[in-house]
Amino acid sequence: MTLAGWIFMSVSWLAILGLFVFCLSRTLRSKDQNNGKPD
Amino acid sequence: MARERWGSKLGIILAVAGSAVGLGNFLRFPAQAARNGGGAFMIPYFVALLLLGIPLMWIEWTIGRFGGGFGHSTAPGMFHTIWEKNKFIKYFGVIGIFGPIVIFIYYIYIESWLLGYSFFAIFGKYNACTTRETMSAFLQGYQGLVQNQYFSSITPAYLFFIVTFALNIIIIYFGISKGIERTCKWTLPVLFIFAIVLAVRVLTLGTPDPAKPENNIVNGLGYLWNPQWSELRNAKVWLAAAGQIFFTLSCGIGMILTYASYLTKQDDVALSGLTASAANEFAEVILGGSIVIPAAFVFFGATEIGKIAAAGTFDLGFVTMPLILQKMAFGNLLGFMWFMLLFIAGITSSISLALPALAFLEDEFNLSKKQASIVLAVTTFIMTQPAVFFLKNGVVDELDFWGGQLCIVVFATIEVILFAWVFGMDRAWTEMHVGSDITIPRIYRFIIKYITPAFLLIILGSWFKQEWVSFLLLRNVPRENIPYIIATRIMLLVFFATLAFFVWLVWKRRAGRIQQ
């Protein structure tokens, strides 16, 4: 695998894992009703 | 009668993720990426995810919850609620029931092969097949395409189909919380565990054949991830990436509308939609990308892998993978895990495909769950028969075109325009944030209003010109298959017309009640 291949794989994996962990942790600690506000 | 509700927030997220995670995550994605520029494919893929997939996910969750507030679980009622002045918009909503059922009637048959192959794997029924030719013959025998030493008739496939069909109907009969939610809560973790075990096994293969040191796992990953920059200038690669995002997220066809309609007004949709998308991407890019193509490279080498990646989804799943897994220790067990994970991915998707039609019968005709389940079961069972018995005549490809390609893009385009332009972006933005656990970045106001519809119109136009015209005109259909294709189209036309008639009838009755 080339260096560019490693970079693409690592960045893609990290981006998806980061999003997944962020979403899951927010979901697990969120209440049933919340107060998110539109901008 | 009180409206059904999800038992928990995690429950609906798992159900939507289950709907999204399907065969495409493990078979279609790696083949598409390998064929369309490797690592470079991920650039248009992520662009499509951010500009098309995630916005559509939020739109469907929001319209679904909004429509559910008015007692509608399906697109005709939801579209009418959004644009009451327009008499015809509810008929466009029919696509949101028609499309999922068209996919359901062939998808469920393919799903049943996975159940069958799970048993074949664990009992070593295909162990004697050690080449691509013999494994293909095994598959063709099972599908009833030929009679050979492995299968003398389609009976085993039909029995597994009956079991799979019954399982689907039973799950949806038990309803949202006790049927779908409970199934997804138990099966999705199993799917992820099986996928992780298989991915770890493949990633630790090293160099299984010392005589061929170049056939190693690092080069296998390289085949998928090394970027071919020149491919980024190819419009087909961008379309392929957008198509993959479309199909993988299961959005743009009406299932998420129905799932989200069982939320309460104060339930979050922004974080839930994003979480379901993230779970799907985890299954697709990280797990799906680490199993089939790297493993095929290690065992078949650089010269064969191109042909394997181009051979299509069925070939990858039912021919290449069993051959590869047989070559590993505990091959039968790994084979069982492979097919069972795909079966779980399949059933959690197929129940979501059947639900809009069931919900339509319940909501708009006031049928009981039992009555609606019987009507759905009888109708879809009859409609599945052509896919089962005329597979070799191209019926499944035809159904896939109408349900899995055309309906999805057309419906998504209508949906996003309706949401951003008719419902209005200010109202839409406020609605998206009711009960929200996150604040959606403001840039998405612009993306949802302008970029996503434009992206969809480009896809619609390009596919129509490049592929759909020749498909619609039967240009590539062998002469002997034309009667079967025309019969399939007549069946679909009658089904669509019946659904449209039902919608007309429901609104006529409703208008009559209001006048009284």
Structure characterization notes:
The complex is a heterodimer of chains A (39) and B (516). Chain A is mainly alpha-helical. Chain A has one helix at 3-29. The N and C termini of chain A lie far apart (44 Å). In chain B, helix 3 (42-68) runs antiparallel to helix 13 and helix 6 (95-122) packs across helix 21 (482-515). Chain B is globular, with a radius of gyration of 23 Å. The interface between A and B is medium-sized, with 29 and 40 residues.
Note the overall shape of chain A: rod-shaped
Radius of gyration of chain B: 23 Å
Give the DSSP E fraction of chain A (strand runs of 2 or more residues): under 5%
**Structure class of chain A:** mainly alpha
Roughly what fraction of the amino acids of chain B lie in strands? under 5%
The major β-sheet of chain B equals: none
Order of helices and strands of chain A: H
How is the secondary structure organized here?
The complex is a heterodimer of chains A (about 40) and B (about 525).
Chain A (H helix, E strand, L loop, with lengths): L2 H27 L10
Chain B lengths: L8 H12 L2 H13 L6 H27 L6 H8 L6 H5 L1 H28 L9 H11 L12 H19 L1 H29 L13 H9 L9 H15 L5 H7 L8 H18 L4 H19 L2 H14 L4 H35 L3 H21 L5 H28 L2 H9 L9 H30 L9 H34 L1
Helix pairs in contact in B: 1-9, 1-12, 1-13, 1-16, 2-11, 2-13, 2-14, 2-15, 3-4, 3-11, 3-12, 3-13, 3-18, 3-20, 6-8, 6-16, 6-17, 6-18, 6-21, 7-15, 8-9, 8-16, 8-17, 9-16, 10-14, 12-16, 14-15, 15-16, 16-17, 18-20
In short:
Chain A is mostly helical.
Keywords:
heterodimer; A: 39 residues; mainly alpha; 1 helix; 0% strand; rod-shaped; disordered C terminus; B: 516 residues; 21 helices; globular
